[in-house]
Amino acid sequence: MARHDGRLPGEIRPVSIVTDFIRYPEGSVLISCGNTKVICNATVEEGVPSFLKGKGRGWVTAEYSMLPRATASRSPRDISKLKLNGRSAEIQRLIGRALRSVVDLDGLGERTITVDCDVIQADGGTRCASITGAFCALVLALGRLRQQGALADLPLYSYVAAISVGVIEEAPVCDLDYQEDSGAQVDFNFIMDDEGNLIELQGTGEGRPFSKRELDDMYFLAQNGIRQLIGVQRSAIGHLFR
Amino acid sequence: MARHDGRLPGEIRPVSIVTDFIRYPEGSVLISCGNTKVICNATVEEGVPSFLKGKGRGWVTAEYSMLPRATASRSPRDISKLKLNGRSAEIQRLIGRALRSVVDLDGLGERTITVDCDVIQADGGTRCASITGAFCALVLALGRLRQQGALADLPLYSYVAAISVGVIEEAPVCDLDYQEDSGAQVDFNFIMDDEGNLIELQGTGEGRPFSKRELDDMYFLAQNGIRQLIGVQRSAIGHLFR
Amino acid sequence: MARHDGRLPGEIRPVSIVTDFIRYPEGSVLISCGNTKVICNATVEEGVPSFLKGKGRGWVTAEYSMLPRATASRSPRDISKLKLNGRSAEIQRLIGRALRSVVDLDGLGERTITVDCDVIQADGGTRCASITGAFCALVLALGRLRQQGALADLPLYSYVAAISVGVIEEAPVCDLDYQEDSGAQVDFNFIMDDEGNLIELQGTGEGRPFSKRELDDMYFLAQNGIRQLIGVQRSAIGHLFR
Amino acid sequence: MARHDGRLPGEIRPVSIVTDFIRYPEGSVLISCGNTKVICNATVEEGVPSFLKGKGRGWVTAEYSMLPRATASRSPRDISKLKLNGRSAEIQRLIGRALRSVVDLDGLGERTITVDCDVIQADGGTRCASITGAFCALVLALGRLRQQGALADLPLYSYVAAISVGVIEEAPVCDLDYQEDSGAQVDFNFIMDDEGNLIELQGTGEGRPFSKRELDDMYFLAQNGIRQLIGVQRSAIGHLFR
Amino acid sequence: MARHDGRLPGEIRPVSIVTDFIRYPEGSVLISCGNTKVICNATVEEGVPSFLKGKGRGWVTAEYSMLPRATASRSPRDISKLKLNGRSAEIQRLIGRALRSVVDLDGLGERTITVDCDVIQADGGTRCASITGAFCALVLALGRLRQQGALADLPLYSYVAAISVGVIEEAPVCDLDYQEDSGAQVDFNFIMDDEGNLIELQGTGEGRPFSKRELDDMYFLAQNGIRQLIGVQRSAIGHLFR
Amino acid sequence: MARHDGRLPGEIRPVSIVTDFIRYPEGSVLISCGNTKVICNATVEEGVPSFLKGKGRGWVTAEYSMLPRATASRSPRDISKLKLNGRSAEIQRLIGRALRSVVDLDGLGERTITVDCDVIQADGGTRCASITGAFCALVLALGRLRQQGALADLPLYSYVAAISVGVIEEAPVCDLDYQEDSGAQVDFNFIMDDEGNLIELQGTGEGRPFSKRELDDMYFLAQNGIRQLIGVQRSAIGHLFR
User: Fold this and answer.
1) Element (H, E) at C121
2) pLDDT class for A124, splitting at 50, 70, 90?
3) A79 and chain B: CB distance < 8 Å anywhere?
4) Which residues in F lie closer than 8 A to residue E200 (C-beta atoms)?
5) Kind of pairing, strands E15-19 and C198-205?
6) For D46-78, what is each residue's pLDDT tens digit?
């Protein structure tokens, strides 16, 4: 199967991570994965949500939203319907879990870091780009805390990045764009650390069920893609962490 | 590792499916998986959501909610916060996808089937029990349509059931109850059909990342658990489908 | 006038009260009045709403909801409309008042008891069944507080139960089911204690005004029905109160 | 028992009904019952709610609200809490039922009349004053339809008015003001027509249960008070109806 | 250009300000500007919003709403749409700013004064009438605080009033009613103090842009109209302030 | 008075307008005014809001929002409070009016153009930057309609741009940044066309009232600033309009 943009099955789209994109947040990046662009801003606030108070532990959470016209047709804002979009609710929970999996919350202390992922242009893979970018914004914010003397070390266990893998016309390919995603038979998101371990896995047979064999094939494409993404993360924030 | 209730690693909790539990829905079951109890009611309505109108295809969707006191402490109702709980939003999207994956929507015709999954008692695995029960409620509703002459055959590709698998104290076990789930290192939900194919997969390393090897081990436990669940489904609704 | 199910004018439907229906609440019953079935769960929480703080008095409140498919056709959930159903709002206020009328709030101390009444199947008389069942759930919760040593005695003045009475084809009958209720000319709810005193009264001429004479007739039917209901309550929770 | 303002037990407060109070509504009155003042505006709109469409019948409904400072302390507006006040929800349903009970909806034709009852000053009995005033606004609006030739006759069965009756220090009194209402042992609202028939009845034992004998006593006070209120209504809108 | 009601270009509509219109608020007026009628109620509460706590300063804010039938056709209440009307949001922010501009918030102390402006009849210029009336309600409330000994002096810098000015058929006129406002080419609101200084200015070219010269002309009409309005304010509350 | 960034009183901040910033909207610009950055995306949709249906006229509207971390501290998203921010509501109404003032809605035909203004970085003057940028996005969208043959000419009367002017330490200055805005005594926004005519004017005395003389001074600064802004607009979209 030839991909419509000529990529090889295991080839990811061009990725760039611009640090300090917005002036005011403690950590800010613009991540571009092909035509998908997400602003990731990390905010550090003293204190933690009430369910954590007095335990000496910190909290990391995320919010995800798309500009109304990030896509080919305009979607109304959540506030005009008075409802948080179900898809957004699901994605921001995923981003939060992914980030918390690599943070030593005890080491963070009673602070909350909120990473806002705002998709300004969407061409598939926005949740993966958000996770990959949000991790960098988080590292920048932690780096600033260390620089201010509030932390001795960055309370992080590892890098984390995310990639989509799918089956298109019976063939597994990685980092699907919107056109590919729309026609995929199987659609997976892999979240992994820098040693090839899995952090979270989500996959659906869109048009048909899939076999264990296909899952295995997708895992190997994902592993390879994640390695490349973490390479780009390291170029952007490697001076701060490892 | 010994499980606190004496079960073997691959042993599921006692499951029962009571059909026609509520009188009025087109399909209704009470599913119990250990102490987890969910009422699944399927409603058939003529017509489809606006994005599907005039295509001759049907729609299947789900809603998920817990009674305030399904759990050890009381949770406020969504309406008192004016917000659909994020976890519920995520789960009901999952149930809907799982059901649609086995339904021939063209064969259903321009009808909408809504399956309401209301958890009356929660002891872990509520989303899996909801999927397993919702499938039965759906079959009952489709069976009634066939009986009324509205459908010639049940527009279904296969059975679908769901099971949780986790890693506890480094050992994989299946069908976790609440106590096990709270302490799990890795937490997975497998949704599969009656031929051992995967329909959806969701898993998170709660306390640590996990390896591909662990994923493989969990898959085999899940495959076995699903087989047992589908056996119980067949006892309940096998006279209607296959 | 012959009733469609053959009951005599003063005959109530078969009533059953299953105690400890759900495992986790401090008090839980499933009440069935004919085909109407309501789960009543009582939750005890320390503290009181802000308007009562520091007065040494407790509070008792109720919430009422129906599963979407408790009835012949499906009703959307409140959260999907972002509005508490007006009828539910009215009923839960009524249940709360009825319960508070028999509780010595000073004797309860600074605790709040919330009784959730969730109708799983509705065949008329759901508000009355909710009150009758909620009282039992409340007694179970108070009984547990006494058993734990938190209360010396149950802070209760009397039993309370509720029954509907109506005029159908010019004849008064009690405990109307949905079919009777739909065609009633006058529709009343009597809430009474175990000495035949009135606690609350609500009645409407649905199709025509009604006379004082009719009210008197309905009162006598209600008095008799309440006596029977309190008999069933006593079988269920009489070992705890009186 | 002497009433704090010197009234006899059966004596109502001074009542006035100013017609055409606001210029734009099809019917508008300001009703004052002592210090309670309510603006009642009736709006006529062509068409009916969807559940009535195509049946040739009309609809009458009501909305009830209080200005934030109608009372001694300020209450936040509903919109600032995004919730319709539970008490308001209950009252507006009551007003709507009371008005519909005297209207021949078939005679009205496919029109909707909405009566807005806005309490500008509240000294007890606001729901009763709203019903008594709303009826007059409704008659004015119907009178205008007749004058325009849209109706041949006013589609009304009778007058309707409402009065509160309570038990204070063991004695029944009628038309309670706020101070009396706060201390009442029993609190009733009677809605009646011009022949002394009952249309709706609501009563609660606030501090203690009450006997059938007390209900009978209250009924006779109510009957007398309603007669006086309907007298005032007739002075205001008697030229239009009967 | 002749005005439809015969007024001269600089002539305002008849204005009246009834003080102590509602019994319970600390300050209450009914202001009528022609057929526009607004109830302005000022409430004094101890304490300030959280962003001001502990600074020893007070706060003045306003809320604005229209009765559903203040206008020729009925508008649904905000609560039925769960959204504060955008126009109301804008107007209440304007009223709040206008009042705060003349209040010495340090002199007020840690108190909040909320002025509710409820339009009961709307014939154009409701935001201006609200400001002019709200100032009087505010003075009455401050006067009561002084009378109670809570304040030594009224913490006010000056009077404030507001007037609309517009361009109709190329001619500037002041105090537009609804009919004039609907056809205006330019529509301005001037908020000024008693020395002819400007406090806030808002103007829009409705049908066409406007020149600096037109702005100057409108300013002089406004200055004159404000002088008249402040005259009426002084008649109503001049015994309390200046 | 020396400005903190060394600008002259009438000197605007560096402005840039990047066209086609986002790929999918019919018109898209990123406008930067100093450190204030706003993405303006124009969407063309067939059809008009219901109040305009069947009149052959089009509609232009705007929405305005800020990313949570556009500012020095994080603001919660509107959806988390279920309320559209009052300030945003006011601003988006202003942008909509400004755009409509220069569009020939009859010439547009039954189409709706929605311009989303999303502030990604805020350093004062965001509403003015939004208007100036939104006009360019609108022209790009209209240009595309002309290119597609849907319009013969751009239905525009003139350019429109907006600038803030204020009084700081008694001296008028234009295009205030956040630091200046916070300390301004008077704060104005001028919206003007390319011939120096006024389209909308909004101004407040923040700390004190202001004189007509000051208004005149501010007008001349505004006129000059607008001329410069329209110059930048012409560089960006002058090939499409005039």
Assistant:
1) strand C111-121
2) very high
3) no
4) 202-205
5) unpaired
6) 999 999 999 999 999 999 999 999 999 999 999
Chains that touch A (3 or more CB pairs under 8 A): B, F
- How many Å apart are CA A211 and CA F108, to the nearest integer? 54
Give the pairing of strands F27-33 and B198-205: unpaired
Tokens read off for C86: 């007006």
Task: Answer yes or no: are the C-beta atoms of F82 and F115 closer than 8 Å.
Answer: no
Residue F68 in contact with partner chain A when CB distance is under 8 A: yes
DSSP-derived pairing of the beta strands C59-66 and C111-121: parallel
Q: Do B74 and C114 touch (CB under 8 A)?
A: yes
Whether residue E71 lies within 8 A of chain D, CB to CB, comes out as yes
Roughly what angle, to the nearest 10 degrees, separates helices F126-147 and F212-237?
40
Least confident of A162-171, C41-50, D158-167, F201-210: F201-210
User: pTM for the full model?
Assistant: 0.94
Long-range contacts of residues B72-75, Cβ cutoff 8 Å, at least 24 apart: B72/C24, B73/C43, B74/C25, B74/C43, B74/C45, B74/C114, B74/C116
pLDDT at C205 over 80: yes
Which among E41, E67, E74 has CB closest to D118? Answer: E67
What pLDDT does F242 receive? 80
Q: What is the DSSP letter of D62?
A: E
F210 shares contact with chain E (CB less than 8 Å): yes
pLDDT greater than 90 at residue B42: yes
Task: Give the single-character DSSP code of D159.
Answer: -
F-contacting residues of E 163-202, CB under 8 Å?
188, 192-193, 195-202
CA of F22 vs chain A CAs: smallest distance (Å) = 6
Residue pair D16/D236 in contact (Cβ under 8 Å)? The answer is: no
Q: Which residues of D touch E84 (CB under 8 A)?
A: 79
CA separation for the pair F27, F43 (Å, rounded)? 7
Q: Which amino acid is at E105?
A: L
* Token pair for D224: 């007398």
Cα–Cα distance for residue pair B5/D227, rounded to 1 Å: 73
pLDDT digits (tens, 9 = 90+) for B133-180: 999 999 999 999 999 999 999 999 999 999 999 999 999 999 999 999
Answer yes or no: do E71 and D116 touch at CB < 8 A.
no
| Residue among D188, D197, D212 minimizing CB distance to C211 | D197
| Tokens read off for B180 | 């096990």
Residue C189 dihedral angles phi and psi, to the nearest 5°: -125, 125
Q: Using an 8 Å Cβ cutoff, are B236 and B19 in contact?
A: yes
Q: Is F65 on the interface with A (CB under 8 A)?
A: yes
Long-range contacts formed by C165-170: CB under 8 A, 24+ apart: C165/C189, C165/C190, C165/C218, C165/C221, C165/C222, C165/C225, C166/C218, C167/C210, C167/C214, C167/C218, C168/C1, C168/C3, C169/C1, C170/C1
Q: Which of E64, E65, E74, E126 has the highest number of chain D CBs within 10 A, making it the mutation to test binding with D?
A: E74
- Which residues of C are less than 8 Å from B22 in CB distance? 67, 69-70, 120-121
Contact E69 D41 (CB under 8 A): yes
Q: Who's near F42: CB < 8 A, 6+ residues apart?
A: F25, F26, F27, F28, F113, F114, F115, F116, F134, F137, F138, F140, F141
pLDDT of residue B242: 79
Among E75, E73, E115, smallest CA distance to E91 is for E115
Nearest CA-CA distance, residue F12 and chain A, Å: 21
In this complex, do D22 and E79 lie within 8 Å of one another by their Cβ atoms? Answer: no
Residue with tokens 């007095």: A54
DSSP state of A20: S
Q: Is F101 on the interface with E (CB under 8 A)?
A: yes
- Mutation target to probe the B interface, by most B beta carbons within 10 A, among C26, C39, C74 is C74
